[in-house]
Recover the amino acids of this structure.
């Protein structure tokens, strides 16, 4: 994602692998908020950021059901889902904070020393912002996003 020196804008190349399409987009600001894959880390390194390697998972979820296990890694970009909340109240407590003693966010990614913590803007590349799992953050959060 190079910057055009004359305009100061980012030139973002977008490739869609499902069809033969390459599109170039100019942007004044770019937000990198990609988690769960290495794309955000790769982009950060191309711009000059260092990246802390992700840590292995503290908790591995075992799925005994063969049909569900086969779905691992599949994403559904534009799926609409409807939640039936009839029995939710009874089942949620087993997944709430404290179930695994300490809940963590994923560690590994762009070091916090390379971004402004007030604005989340890159200290290396102006007008580039980072958020989410692309950052190297580790700590007790009480959430569902385990390290």
């Amino acid at each position: 994602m190079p910057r055009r020196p004359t305009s100061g804008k980012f030139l973002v190349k977008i490739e869609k692998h499902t069809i033969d399409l390459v599109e170039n987009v100019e942007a004044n600001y770019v937000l990198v908020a990609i988690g769960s894959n290495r794309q955000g880390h790769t982009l950060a390194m191309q711009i000059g950021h260092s990246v802390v390697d992700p840590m292995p998972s503290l908790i591995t979820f075992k799925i005994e059901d063969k049909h569900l296990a086969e779905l691992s890694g599949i994403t559904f970009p534009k799926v609409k889902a409807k939640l039936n909340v009839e029995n939710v109240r009874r089942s949620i407590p087993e997944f709430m904070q404290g179930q695994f003693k300490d809940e963590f966010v994923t560690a590994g990614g762009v070091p916090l020393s390379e971004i402004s913590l007030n604005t989340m803007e890159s200290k290396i590349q102006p007008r580039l912002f980072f958020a989410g799992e692309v950052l190297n953050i580790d700590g007790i959060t009480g959430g569902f996003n385990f390290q």
Q: What stands out?
A: The CA atoms of residues 11 and 26 lie 5 Å apart.
